[in-house]
Amino acid sequence: MKQLVVLSGKGGTGKTTVTASLAQLLKPVVLADCDVEAPNLHLLLSPQTDDSFPLKVSRKARIDPDLCTACGACAESCRFGAITTGDPYRVDAFRCEGCGVCGFVCPEEAVDFFETDGAQVYRGMTPYGPMVGAELAVGEEASGKVVTRVRMEAQLTAHEAGLPLVIVDGSPGTGCPVIASLSGADLTLIITEPSLSGLHDLERILQVAEHFGIPTIAGINKCDIVPELADRIRKRCGELGIEVAAEIPFSGEVVEALRGRRPPVGNVPPEVEEPLRRLALVIEERTAVATG
Questions:
Q1: Omega of the bond leading into 275 within 30 degrees of 0 (cis)
Q2: How far is Cα 129 from Cα 86, in angstroms, rounded to an integer?
Q3: pTM of the predicted protein model
Q4: Residue 45: enclosing H or E segment and its boundaries?
Q5: Distance between CA atoms of 175 and 276, rounded to whole angstroms?
Q6: What is the DSSP string of 121-188?
Q7: What's the pLDDT tens digit per position in 97-150?
C-alpha cells in the first residue's frame, strides 16, 4: 500500500479539486481528507457515512471551588489568560492550552485536567472507494493529532480492503497538520498556481517535503492566467529537479461543476481533463501501483 499526499503552499489553488479528480481516475482508492480545519473533499465525493466516533486529542484544566483559596497563583502564571478570578475561579476552555502550569503552581492542588472530544472522525464510502475524514470541535487546535488519526484509519482501511493506494488531501500551508500529513508518505504532489503568493508558498512547501526526503512532483492549476509566472514556476521546478506533471488551464466549467458539487472528470472540457489523466498516469508510474 502506497500513500500519495496532495498539498499546496496556500489555500485556493485547487488542491481538493485535483484530489477528487485523481480519486475518479485511480479508483478504487482510499481517501483521507486531512484538511481537518476546513474539510471540503466530501462536498465533491459525497461519501455515505458508515460509522463515526469522537476523538480526544487535548486536555483542559478545571478548578475545584471547594479546594481553591483564591490565592491567584494560577491566574498570575497562565500565559494564555485562561483563568478568570472571582468567586469561584474559572478556566476559559477556549483559551486553555492544557499546559499544566496552573496545576503546578497551585498550593492547594485544586486544579485537575480532563480530556475533551477534539474531533469527530468518520468513515464512509464514495463511488471511488472508502473515505476517512474528521471535523474539529469548535475552538480545537490539535489538528495535527487529528490528521495523524485520520491517516491511521485510512491506512487500516486500505489494508483491510486490499487497496493499493491512499490519497491524502492535506492542509494548505506548512504547519503542524501538513507535517502530520507528510510523514511516511511515498509521493507528494504539490498543486500551485501562477501568482506571486503561489510561487512563494511553493518554495516553502518544497522545503518541507525535501526535509522529509519524500519524492515530489508538482502541478500548475489555472496555468494560463498569468503566463509569465507560470514560466517562473516551471523554471524554478526545473532548477530543483521537480517534475511538473500537470498544467491545467482555467475553465469556467470547472467552477460550475464545483458549484454543482460534481466531481471534475466527466464534467469539464477535454483541455482540462487531459492534463488530469496524464497526471494520474505519472502517479501510477511513480507509486508503482495498479489501480482502476
A1: no
A2: 54
A3: 0.89
A4: helix 41-45
A5: 27
A6: EEEEEETTEEEEEEEEPTT---HHHHHHHHHHHHHHHHHHHT-SEEEEEEEESSSHHHHHHHTT-SEE
A7: 999 999 999 999 999 999 988 899 999 999 999 999 999 888 777 788 899 999
